[in-house]
């Protein structure tokens, strides 16, 4: 199968092929949606796919809130960086890292669940939520639907929790806008780093891996210029990580998680 | 498509169907592997699938180390709870939440990357690593390969970092054993919580959701008894989260991450 678009490299390809890989390799984020709704059956399939993902010790420490109400989508959009596609998408899924279910079990049983206080457990919550949501992303694409993740839902986690009526020990990990891709959107398959920049054999070799970044900067600059966007990859990474002011308020997330009942100690 | 096994419910089904959903719905963890190797082309496909997953601001804050050396697999197995399947699998992938690549970019450019100090950025590292790895899991299954995640790679993160020669600002998020499933393994598709326990419409309703746990406990008890395993889901969750002693040493992860250069403040 060709991997030309995936790597921005005319020679990139792999000799194995099937329908699943074709769907995965063709992934792009969709931020402009057509008018058709996401059906209840499609939502059932997305959630069944999500629940089919692995989960640490079968804890299943996540939940998902399906938002279709236009006013609620608008309010969530305002809380998440005013990204218009959130309100435009017919379905906005908010994925919840959810230790609340287990904590409620413990409360009802009258036993401690002190392990949930640790950063390790918060990480399990976020990791398992991500594993699940990625299955939903691939399932959506297999059904002809487009998606885009919304990390900006973490800009105001307490306001989002109030909007969605989240119980204690639960936090919105990220949003996912879902809908029919509008073909007029000017967007394509964004090239990724060459495999040799991220894949190491036996041990990590930073010098060998980082040699591929220069070529990637050229490829991504070429790709971005197609859409009138400036900047090489390196420049964008450095701008994104410069300092706490680059984090859209999320530099206080640790304190916010503690207030939401995920002390992450 | 039937979802009987997925939910341990003879009536569970969904009206949409395709090959991708079939692969996802049939997921199970594989902990016993046949003799055949994972080919270089298959590994290329797994990593291309992983790189096709979404990533926040295209940061691509992850790397993966492919371990095939039998002695190294044995040492990693010893560090990760002595799980024999790690050494038995032909391929053990260690997925790295990797802020090191961006930090090295910043060092070479002589600029700050202080946003990488925050918990938000650590979470992005783990989330994006999980999104990528889940694509590899589904890709593997589409190629007839089985996988199982190994969270126990976080039992001793500093020793794992030394074994793999990780640079600063990088940590093993989880392992993934990959190989041909041995059909003699006594394992099946583990039922998950009913959808109504995890999927909420518009707002989160804890009372309505938790009503489904009792039925799930019955279903999982039935499933577990097939494999001679005791315990309902609730009991296992409570045992897993009782206290820091349930975390196999990972209650100190926050301090360990700081020493590895992910201060997560």
Explain the overall architecture.
The structure is a homodimer of 265-residue chains. The first copy, chain A, is of the alpha+beta class and 265 residues long. Chain A folds into 2 domains: 1-27, no CATH class; 31-182 and 203-259, 3-Layer(aba) Sandwich (NADH Oxidase). Helices cover 45% and strands 12% of the residues of chain A. Chain A contains 13 helices and 5 strands. The first copy, chain A, has helices at residues 4-7, 19-25, 40-52, 70-79, 84-88, 100-109, 119-142, 157-164, 195-198, 206-210, 213-226, 233-241, 253-259, and strands at residues 62-67, 91-98, 146-150, 170-179, 199-201. The first copy, chain A, starts with a helix and ends in a 6-residue tail after the last helix. The interface between A and B is large, with 123 and 122 residues.
Name a few traits of the molecule.
alpha+beta, globular, NADH Oxidase, 13 helices, 265 residues, homodimer, 12% strand
Please report which band the strand proportion of chain A falls in: under 5%, 5-15%, 15-25%, 25-35%, 35-45% or over 45%.
Answer: 5-15%
Q: Mind summarizing the main beta sheet of chain A? A: 4 strands, antiparallel
| Biggest interface, CB < 8 A | A-B, 123 and 122 residues
From the spread of the alpha carbons, the general shape of chain A counts as: globular
Q: Separation of termini of chain A? A: 46 Å
- As a percent range, the share of helical residues of chain A equals 40-55%
CATH topology of the largest domain in chain A: NADH Oxidase
């Amino acid at each position: 199968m060709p991997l030309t678009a995936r790597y921005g490299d005319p020679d990139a390809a792999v000799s194995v092929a099937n329908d699943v890989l074709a769907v995965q390799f063709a992934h792009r984020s969709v931020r402009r949606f057509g008018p058709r709704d996401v059906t209840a059956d499609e939502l059932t399939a997305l959630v069944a796919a999500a629940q089919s993902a692995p989960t640490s010790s079968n804890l299943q420490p996540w939940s998902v809130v399906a938002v279709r109400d236009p006013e609620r989508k608008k309010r969530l959009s305002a809380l998440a960086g005013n990204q218009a596609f959130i309100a435009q998408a017919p379905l906005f899924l908010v994925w919840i890292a959810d230790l609340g279910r287990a904590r409620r079990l413990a409360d009802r049983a009258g036993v401690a669940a002190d392990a949930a206080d640790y950063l390790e457990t918060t990480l399990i919550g976020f990791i398992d939520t991500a594993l699940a949501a990625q299955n939903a992303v691939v399932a959506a694409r297999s059904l002809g639907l487009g998606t885009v993740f919304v990390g900006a839902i973490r800009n105001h986690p307490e306001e989002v929790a109030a909007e969605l009526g989240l119980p204690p020990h639960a936090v919105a990990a990220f949003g996912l806008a879902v809908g029919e891709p509008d073909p007029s959107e000017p967007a394509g398959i964004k090239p990724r780093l060459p495999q040799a920049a991220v894949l190491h054999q036996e041990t990590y070799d930073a010098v060998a891996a980082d040699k591929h970044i220069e070529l990637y900067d050229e490829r991504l600059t070429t790709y971005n210029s197609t859409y009138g966007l400036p900047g090489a990859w390196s420049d964008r990474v450095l701008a994104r990580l410069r300092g706490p002011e680059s984090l859209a308020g999320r530099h206080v997330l640790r304190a916010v998680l503690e207030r939401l009942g995920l002390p992450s100690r």
